[in-house]
Amino acid sequence: MGMLNGLEWRDKMKGLKVHQEKHYLMWEDGTPFFYLGDTAWELFHRLDREEAAEYLERRAAQGFHVVQAAALAELDGIYMGNAYGHRPLVMEEGKVCLPGKQGESFSGVEECAAYWEHVDWVIHRAAELGLFMGILPCWGDKWNKKWGCGPEIFRDSDSAYEYGAWIGERYRRDWNVIWILGGDRPVENEGQESVLDAMAAGIRSRDTRHLMTFHPSGASCSTDFLKCKPYIDFNCCQSGHGLEGYESWKFIRKMQEEEEKPCLDMEPRYEGHPACFQPEYGVFWGEREVRQNGYWNLLQGACGCVYGHHGVWCFCREKDSGHLKTWREGLEEKGAGQMRYMEQLRLCRPFFELRPAPELVEQEEWCGQYIAAARGDKYAFLYTPYGQEMKVHLEKMGDGPVQCSWFDPADGVFQKKEIWPPCPVVLRPPDAGHDWVAVLDF
């Protein structure tokens, strides 16, 4: 598929669906859709319209297709108003009254109407730029206050269903919506599971068109909590920012083994994030780590890639020991500009046929050294995260010669070509020291 601008996407494509073989996503007309997402959890809550437009325009220009944000935000999103001082829910004597509850007319509540009109504006501006909004109806502390500000609003199925139906009705006509349940919390009991089931049912009672998924807590998968739920169209993991999910491809493989649905790492290591949440280590994840998670996941068969920057998701305005960049500075980090190259690589060969092919390479059991391999009918991709040499079984690819081209994930440029016989070979990147993709055609 050639690259389309935002207006062309809006005009040519009607919506998204799961490909019939259940590995990837596509537009309704059968065109491949690569879920290239950016993490902007606090977008609705912290930015005014001018700032939101600036953010959206920049991410659209960088090639992103999905922006992920929470309608009821994490960082005191209930009690603290948005950039204009407007709150999302009615407050009476310090308690939350859900919109429409007990016959109350939500449209007549001036403060709440203004909050949701701002959300509307952001979604509509994103649509004008050809961007999907991955909307979390609420952050996870609103149904499981295991940590965070809360409050835990949704404690029963009735309130969750009511809110789901309300927000589903509000945005069912917007073409650019993807629903994301969850919000970085585990499902720890049947009551919480019933709340999520009810919220999904409420949304589906009004909106049967848009895709839906679940954003789990760190180092876990949606299949750990909501396996075989019919409302989950594609599964997601959060490999996270520590060491538990360092080799993120293992989570993609786990989801693939547990359920036949497309899958995605919705929250891998963020660029600019302190390693293991400890700024005192003096180690912050950078462009290399971002690319590693992206290409590991990609060649394990993920249906796309999600990027995040630690100064952007929360729209940091002042630097501190844990945030070395403001949100505007974070927008221009190198990793953000390199994400589009993953899509370009995927689209340069037949899209839907790519499958993991670990049999093509010999692995060394060292953490972080995993060489990802995937193949289609007449091609293969091999990813070396540190530019190490690769022992490859070309004889498993066919009887004829194999052409090897080297793709640089840092700039999206193909470099030298080589021709090899169909036998075991050692492939060496053009230069060591950073990651490379070997593109094999046979």
TrEMBL record:
Instruction: Report the GO molecular function annotations.
Output: hydrolase activity
Q: Which UniProt keywords apply?
A: Hydrolase
Q: Which residues form the Apiosidase-like catalytic domain?
A: 20-352
Query: Coiled coil where?
Result: none
| Entry-linked Pfam families | Apiosidase (PF13204), Collagen_bind_2 (PF12904)
- Domain Putative collagen-binding: from-to ranges: 363-441
Q: What is this protein called?
A: Glycoside hydrolase family 140 protein
User: What is the protein's species of origin?
Assistant: Blautia hominis
